[in-house]
UniProtKB/TrEMBL annotation:
It comes from Pseudomyxococcus hansupus. Catalyzes the formation of sulfite from adenosine 5'-phosphosulfate (APS) using thioredoxin as an electron donor. Its cofactor is [4Fe-4S] cluster. The lineage of its organism: Bacteria, Pseudomonadati, Myxococcota, Myxococcia, Myxococcales. This is Adenosine 5'-phosphosulfate reductase. CDD domains: PAPS_reductase.
Length: 245
């Protein structure tokens, strides 16, 4: 369980503590059903439309249909991601809520530091992520009581401690990761057996997909997140949406 942070209420901390034990060993379906019963439309799935998120969306339509789905459109997503969003809207009959960064912040960043400032240093990259991702996420979560992600422990060294239920004190709500214990094989087996659509970039060697300038295909011996901000050390490859503990 993550340590309580300043914005978490005592009630949220107690709920997280009480429910963490039994959800720790619950199936993804059970976690989503619990989320539906406890929060309903006051919870939302945060989706970047990678394969994990597609599995999550498919499961949620069956076990937690009230959950909203939102995405952060940084303005630099690959075309394949936008294509998949349209597939999701039509296949599942859902609204995908879209949150953009603040126009003035992006304009100032690019005007003063250029279009690729994020390659200059870790601090510069975090500045770009803070504007394009972290700030929009804060707005997306401002009216929620819980959010659901596709995080898995197997994805990278920065995610080995991911728990099924976490207290997200930074945003003052609960964070659920129903696929935390799933392996890559589990994910793709589900996709193949259930006919779940997925991002075309996965077939081109992209196991993890983010902004186009910050994502590349990986080699067979590299981990799943090696193609994200590949010029940085492996223990730094997070954008701030999911702080490293």
């Amino acid at each position: 369980m993550s340590s309580p942070l300043p914005h978490a209420t005592p009630a949220q901390a107690l709920l997280a503590e009480a429910e963490a034990a039994h959800l720790k060993t619950a199936s993804a379906e059970q976690v989503l059903a619990w989320t539906e019963q406890r929060f309903g439309a006051n919870a939302a799935i945060a989706s970047s439309f990678g394969v994990e998120d597609m599995v999550l969306i498919d499961l949620a339509r069956q076990h937690a249909p009230s959950l909203h789905i939102f995405t952060l459109d940084t303005g630099r997503l690959p075309p394949e991601t936008y294509e998949l969003i349209e597939v999701v809207r039509k296949r599942y009959g859902v609204t995908v809520e879209t949150y953009f960064p603040e126009r003035e912040q992006v304009e100032t960043l690019e005007s003063t530091k250029g279009c690729f400032s994020f390659r200059q240093s870790l601090e510069a990259r975090k500045e770009c992520c803070a504007i394009r991702k972290v700030a929009p996420l804060k707005r997306a979560l401002s009216s929620r009581q819980a959010w659901v992600t596709g995080l898995r422990r197997e994805q990278s060294v920065t995610r080995t401690a991911v728990e099924t239920l976490e207290l997200d004190g930074a945003h003052g709500l609960l964070k659920l990761n129903p696929l935390a214990a799933w392996s890559t094989r589990d994910i793709w087996t589900y996709v193949q057996t259930q006919g779940v659509p997925y991002n075309a970039l996965h077939d081109r060697g992209y196991p993890s997909i983010g902004c186009a300038p910050c994502t590349r295909a990986v080699k067979p011996y590299e981990d799943e997140r090696a193609g994200r901000w590949w010029w940085e050390s492996a223990d730094k490859r997070e954008c701030g949406l999911h702080p490293v503990r």
